[in-house]
Structure formats: structure tokens, C-alpha cells
């Protein structure tokens, strides 16, 4: 939701609400970025309304201000009164892209003379009004796409130059040949993390008091199956079945479009959840604790499913052993509490055992949240530190976060020479090119390989070695 301060008071920006309703399957982060971009544009247009800028000049100055800020670097004064700090070209392009997509959509719908939009236009500054009624604006290209139509890209860049009156700056991240550096979770720490990291009370006889089994099971799926962090939270209890030869089979199903998998039930998962007053967890309308990320992974067209491939059978057997314990001794009592509070049960496998004492809200039996897992994972790293007797640096840069476990799986397969098609299937990528990131060697390994070559004679010829 975006609220604007207009001459008539605080006003909901209803066109944005309609925009989100037209895109129900977009992520929460996408919606937040769009709201922020349009909010910044509105603030800027109000701040410069007295200048009488043309549409093109308004957008040019806005995009420059996103990148360079609004504060004069010499006088430290800001005539706009916004006091925006300098940003990056990457942020500039993301904001402009969000605005571009919204305007293109609004241009299409406004042709039908949308009365809500027309009423809104009466309240905004003329400069922003001209901008919002513009049509056919080039959208910035996303770095996430692995293939692009060169002709369309060239045409798009020309349109951007004409509309904005400028070319957006060169983002060094997008230079040809650049590959995003990813740090894998240290291989030597994974066995110890799983064995020791989730032990809460080593003296407890109850396995659920002794270990944080929910967080441990999710970690096994990330470290052994290469899942993205949000994917385990979409699993239903019936998505895990025994496989005597390899422990168990775990299957990811599309959160809304796939069927329930219950015998005799042909409903989609969305329909089944709706009967229990719940949303699929990937929906932007889901509450903060219920929401879980879901990327458009490669799924079977008929069943909208994707099998989880464990890189070693030990992960599969361990997960199955814990699943049986979880389903027989842990989940039932929590679901009983949930049903007492909500009048019905839910099908999600992983459940919470917490409560908000300050608000007096019980989360016992509710679908386990991503935030709860993040906290549990952080505590597991803390226990691992005590076990090892040394400090472990946190974060993405050190490969010590949940998503780094997925990169570990991809890197292990790439190092072992696994065929690209197999890696694609295991990682649930939609394109072969997506796995290139796992093949990038860290600087220390490059240096080690370089040292293994005999280069002395070549360097001696040019006087580099005596």
C-alpha cells in the first residue's frame, strides 16, 4: 500500500492497488520495490513542481537524483528539501524499471478511461500527471535473464535514450564477462553443523527438547538437496514418501496450481487452502509470518512438481528417519493446539512451537516461518562456534548463511564433473546457463592452480625471473 500526501489530505494510491491486484503472483519484495519507486517519484515531482519541468526533464532529473543524490556536493545544500544520499546505478535502474512497468500498464488501462485513475490525476502535480499518462517507455533489462534478444535490446536502449533524454549509467555489475561471485558454505563445517549445531540441550532425553528438529530438517534439505531457502516451507506433510532403496522421496509442488495429492481429491492446493481460510505461502497477500519465497523453478508441466535430488543417500535416510519422528511424535500435538485455536488443521509439513507472549498470540502448530528458521540457523552457528572454539564470520560474503548451502551443492557437482543437464535438474534451473555461477573459482584456488604450472622459463625469456 502507498499513501500520498495530496492537497486533499492523505490519500491511498489506488492505481497501485489495482496494479498489484492484476499481478497476484508477484513477490512481496517486488511489490515493496514498486511502491518505493513510485513513492520516490511522487516525492520528487512534488519537490520540483514549481520548476515547470517537462516530462522528459522531470524523469531525467529524477533518475540522476537516484544515482547521485539531491544534495549539492559543494554547498551541502538541497534545493529540493529531499536530502537523498547518492545511490548506485543498480538501484537507479531497478527504480526506473519499476516505474516504467507501472506506467506502461497504466497507459494501457487508462485508454479505457479508468475513473479511479482520472480522479487521482486531478490531485497530483501537473509534472507527474504528464509523466503518468506517458506511453511506451523502455524497461530496464534484468540481470536475472540468461538470454536476451539483441535486436530488442538495441531497440529498447534507443527508446530509453529518447524518452529519458539521457542514457542510464553503465552499471559495472552488468559488464560482459562479469559473473556474480558466490561463496559456498564451507564443506568441512556441514557435518558438524548438522551433528552439533541444532542441539539445544544435550542432557535432555526428549528428542524434541534435545534438538531443534524442525530447523535441522530444513537444513538437511538445503545442504543435501540444494533447495532454495524458501522452498521447504511450501512442503505439505504428504510430499514425503518412503523409498526403501534410497530412504525417501521428497517432491516440491507448485504452491497454488498443483493438486493436493490426497486420494480422491482433485482440488488444487489453492482451493484446498481457501477452504481453511489460508493462502498459498508465495502470495503477496500472505501475512509476514506465513509468506515464503518461491522462485519459478523448472517443474513438470502436467503435475507442476519437481523431485528433490539428494547429492548423497545419507541425507535422504537421515531426513526420512527424522520425518517419521516428526510426524509421529512432534507435529500431532502441535496440530491439536492449532485446530483448537483455528477450528481446522493445515497441510504444511513444518510447524511452529512458539508464541508471542507480548501480544498474547500462540503460533503453536502454525506453518513454520522463514524468520523463525533464520533465527534458529543463527543459533546453530553460535553452538557450532562453541564446539569449534573459534569465531565464525557471518553473512553472504563468508558463505555462512542458509542460501550458501545451495551454492555448496551446485559447486560440489560442478567440481565433480557432473553433466550440466544433471546439475540443471538437481538445482531446478530453467536454463543450463544458470549454473555457470558454480563454476567460478575463488581467488585462492585460481592462485593455487596457477602455481602448479611451470612458468619460470617463459618469464625468464622476458626478464621477469633471474
Automatic annotation (TrEMBL):
Gene3D superfamilies: Intergrase catalytic core (1.10.443.10)
Domain (Tyr recombinase) ranges: 334-439
One term of GO molecular function: DNA binding
UniProt keywords, alphabetically: DNA recombination
Entries under Pfam families matching the protein: Phage_integrase (PF00589)
GO biological process: DNA integration; DNA recombination
Record InterPro entries: DNA_brk_join_enz (IPR011010), Integrase-like_cat_sf (IPR013762), Integrase_catalytic (IPR002104)
Taxonomic lineage: Bacteria, Pseudomonadati, Pseudomonadota, Gammaproteobacteria, Aeromonadales
Protein name according to UniProt: Tyrosine-type recombinase/integrase
